[in-house]
Design goal:
By secondary structure, the protein is mostly helical. It has 14 helices and five strands. The strands form two sheets. The protein has a three-stranded antiparallel sheet, with no helix packed on it.
Length: 384
């Protein structure tokens, strides 16, 4: 077969693979149980190693401080035009490494870091506070997300709206310029807006904020943890203020601010793509149950960044099924359960930047399938 023939075959194969990726996953009750999935996973995958977990912290922090040292010690020695190239490289590398740090703190919130809750919470509080994340506040709301994934009434974040509840101005953004603007605002401001104003989160009967100990997100017994989270943010803010006073605001923005924006953008991208896909259902209360909701997630491929992000990107389904499993066993666990999951497992190897654009175009709102007997299963639609 000539080169042209082989290319045609490759194109056809890729097209068929894409169709399979976009085919809707089953929404009926799975023919397996959580217990059966757990039995398929080697027992050692559930064991947490304090030493191994700390080794990942040390690894990430080593590179974070290495990049910081190189930038602050040598960039000013470069000929002036070269600094315009050096700083974006630093921002990208530092942003990726600090995203890995964020993931480890997230793992602490799931009690997947060690066998000691106080160790997990101490490490998580320090790491997340350094990235201006209220550790306990987000840990609590994220736990509820895991308990209610895929529920249109009770999930905590990236809850899609039915067509009847879409804002009136949405139709004006359903075009290429509008999608570009929407994605930019979402990636840059989405994370702080969610923490401060519950944007894209579950609707509450009054103002909800991750910094408010008396807000509707939290119960009375959780209040102290919110105060501790806020104290961590105040401490980190004071350190940053002191650095700005000593070194200047421009220095702080270059060394810390821009990498943090990249961390926040990756966090929004990762979370959005894990829970937004044309093939994934959402459920109302008549159809939702925990296992079906946990399976309404997708694994994605970020290339080399999978390792940098500690595989939170390509083992998300396993993470939702067994959230206390440490990340360094998640790949092995995913391989073990994939044969059992079958059609209920969704992996999409589309480049994340292409997937962002496709999902922004294809996943506008959710509606039940009019041809289906059940009206409690909702699917993404792309036209307003």
């Amino acid at each position: 077969m000539g080169a042209g023939g082989q290319m045609s075959v490759d194109v056809v194969n890729k097209s068929e693979e894409q169709k399979a990726t976009l085919q809707r996953v089953p929404h009926t009750q799975p023919p397996f149980t959580l217990g059966q999935l757990k039995k398929a996973i080697p027992p050692h995958c559930f064991k947490r190693s304090l030493f191994r977990s700390f080794s990942y912290v040390a690894y990430d922090l080593f590179f974070a401080f290495l990049f910081y040292y190189i930038a602050t010690s040598y960039f000013h020695l470069l000929p002036h035009p070269l600094s315009y190239f050096a700083w974006p490289i630093y921002w990208t590398l530092q942003g990726c490494i600090l995203t890995g740090v964020w993931v480890i703190a997230h793992e602490c919130g799931h009690h997947a870091f060690s066998d000691y809750q106080w160790v997990d919470d101490t490490v998580g509080l320090v790491l997340h506070s350094a990235l201006l994340v209220p550790y306990f506040s987000w840990k609590i709301s994220h736990r509820r997300h895991h308990s209610n994934t895929g529920s249109l009434e009770r999930d905590e974040v990236f809850v899609p709206k039915p067509k009847s509840k879409m804002p009136w101005f949405s139709k004006y953004f359903n075009n290429p310029p509008g999608r570009v603007l929407t994605l930019l605002v979402t990636l840059i401001l989405g994370w702080p807006l969610y923490l401060a104003f519950n944007v894209s989160g579950r609707p509450y009967d009054r103002f909800a904020c991750h910094y408010d100990p008396y807000g509707p997100i939290y119960s009375g017994r959780e209040r102290l943890q919110i105060y501790i989270s806020d104290a961590g943010i105040f401490a980190a803010t004071y350190v940053l203020y002191s650095a700005a006073m000593a070194k200047g605001l421009a220095w702080l923005v270059c060394v810390y601010g821009v990498p943090l924006l990249i961390v926040n953008s990756f966090l929004v991208t990762i979370t959005y793509l894990q829970h937004t896909h044309p093939s994934l259902p959402h459920y109302d209360s008549s159809e939702w149950d925990w296992l079906k909701g946990a399976l309404a997630t997708a694994d994605r491929d970020y290339g080399v960044l999978n390792k940098v992000f500690h595989n939170i990107t390509d083992t998300h389904v396993a993470h939702h099924l067994f959230s206390t499993m440490p990340h360094y066993h998640a790949m092995e666990a995913t391989k073990a359960i994939k044969p059992i999951l079958g059609e209920y497992y969704r992996f999409d190897g589309t480049s994340f930047y292409k997937a962002l654009w496709r999902e922004a175009k294809e996943c506008i709102y959710v509606e039940p399938d009019e041809r289906a007997p059940s009206k409690g299963v909702f699917w993404y639609q792309k036209k307003l």
